[in-house]
Amino acid sequence: MLFVTKSSSSLNQAVKALASNQRLAIVSPFVKNEFSPEEQIKALVAKRQHLLRDAVAVLAESLDYKVFQEYTCERAAIFFTNAVKPLWDSYAVDRVGQFPFSGFFLKYL
User: Fold this and answer.
1) Ramachandran angles phi, psi of 89, nearest 5°
2) Where would I find the H helices in the chain?
3) pLDDT tens-digit profile of 13-39?
4) What pTM, to 2 d.p., does this model score?
5) Are 86 and 95 spatial neighbours (Cβ–Cβ below 8 Å)?
6) 56: phi > 0 → left, psi -120 to 50 → alpha, else beta; which?
7) If both were cysteines, with which of 66, 83, 87, 104 could 62 make a disulfide (CB 3.0 to 4.6 Å apart)?
């Protein structure tokens, strides 16, 4: 995302408004940042937990993959390697049959 403003105070106001929704973490030495590194890390961890809890879990459920009760980054990588990538590769080669991730899109999106 690129912000162009007339002043750094305008930029700081825009950044503050976006970061208040925990959708933005600023890691830049060039922007005056009112948020501590701890707050930025908390926002990144919260976003990661949301994605793991919601997106990965919904995808696993839609593929009937019941190996893990909850997902960490490592478990999500195992899930991708063992379930998602083989399904995608076989669909990309053949393109025959039903799209393997349609259940995910119906539930998640």
Assistant:
1) -60, -45
2) 8-19, 37-50, 57-62, 73-79, 85-94, 102-108
3) 777 776 666 555 555 555 555 667 777
4) 0.57
5) no
6) alpha
7) 104
Q: How far apart are CA 18 and CA 89, in angstroms?
A: 37
Written as one letter, the residue type at 47 is K
Span 62-90, average pLDDT: 89
Amino acid, res. 89: D
| Tokens 């991708």 found at | 80
The residue type found at 67 is V
Q: Which of 48, 3, 46 minimizes the C-alpha distance to 28?
A: 3
The ranges assigned to domains in the chain are 1-35, 36-108
